[in-house]
Sequence to fold (495 residues):
Amino acid sequence: MRRWGTLTAVCLGTFMLLLDVTIVVVALPDMAGALHASLGDLQWVVDGYALALAALLLGVGAAADILGRRRVHVTGVVLFAAASLLCGLASGPGLLVAARALQGVGGAAMFATTLPLLASVYQGRQRSAALGVWGAVSGGAAAVGPVLGGLITEGPGWRWIFFVNLPVSVVAVWLTLRAVPESRGPRGLSVDWAGTAAFAVFAGGATYAVVRAGEDGWTAPAALGAFAAAALALAVFVLVERRVAHPLLDLSLLRRPAFVGTMLGSFAFNGVAFGGIAYLSLWMQTLLGLSPVRAGLTLLPMTAVSMVVAVLVGRLAHGVPAWLTVGGGLLLIAAGTLGQAVLDAGAGWTALVPGFVLVGVGTGFVAPTVAGAALAAVPAERSGMAGGAVNTVRQLGYALGVAVFGTVLTSRMTGPLPSAAAHTLAGGGAGPLRQVFPEHTLRAAFASGLDTALVVAGLAGVAAGTLVAVLIRAGRPVPAKPSGAVREQPAAIRG
Fold:
């Protein structure tokens, strides 16, 4: 039971927490109608979860090394389940956003302990097999999220997107307590709570500033104040990390071009590839009239291709330089994003397919190689820290990508539509607007906003991909230490 029980328990938790990053995408129009949610509310339904996950990942991972990884993992699953129940029962957008953030806290406790738990149980070939299964589950969760979300939304309703987590959580807790042994990091560690708090304020402030800028303008006091708070928090984070004994991030790693390149690649990857999917789903359902299931299925060309390419890259690309797989993959993602910017008033969802396929190919190159590139860029004793940093900036990139997409989308739509109407349309409220504006005007406005946002994302991807390739190529991999027992990493996160 214990041999593969640990893998099953960890994979159940991983599947749930990563599924909830994407499963809400196709349910947003139904949520908006049921809860009378605005575009800003919908952005926070997506971002509240991703931000909490990103902001707390490093700190919770460090706490797990001290308190016990199994204990923290189980606590995370229980908190995730409770938050899922609150999400399903939410009577308004504010309660839903708060519950989603609480989900992110539980998800951080689960995600931070997944790989350390596997590493404590499996060795040698078994560890390689376990990590392969875990990686496949991780990719599969993101891939099936929109489709499963569509099926549930069109069936029992969007609230069941969250309710289904409850029985899975019960099984995950039972299996974890039964099959997973407790493990801890080396003695003498401490948790950098000051750095954790500063990073959380930075991430939340930056995202809030972008969302407010989309609603009130870039020079609005709320947006400028949030930008200032984020900048101050970032400065505090840097000061804290330079002084504490056990920092979340060793700032000396930023002197390594290859490490900086992989962090930039991780950040740009999720933001460029997936930041606009929520708005594409809103467009397909509110203006094209697609059902939630059909809207979810339109993403299959991207997800299926990415999974196939990832498997091939994992098997055949051994020894291929990371600057080619990560930098080149980002350029493919950028090309696919630009290829989606072909929408107009008469466009259908099929216009997106070529771009989706290219994004899928690029994702298949980046996803299985970016973490390895980060580990190769740092000394062995910092590998856990590097792995945690990759996951953190990926989630932060997704959260900021969603915010930037929404801001650019609505700002471009305010030409043909008044500001209030643009926000209503972008938030899925096309019904009332059809009584005021011609259908052609609504479709043209939304398509124009999407095209602009996709172009901005694509150009950002081109810049990031080029810079990533240059930085990783400029850095030299850290030589591996002599063979022997794998050291237990003291780092905040290895997941």
Notes: The two ends are 24 Å apart (CA to CA). Residues 478-495 have pLDDT under 50 and may be disordered. DSSP finds 21 helices and no strands in the chain.
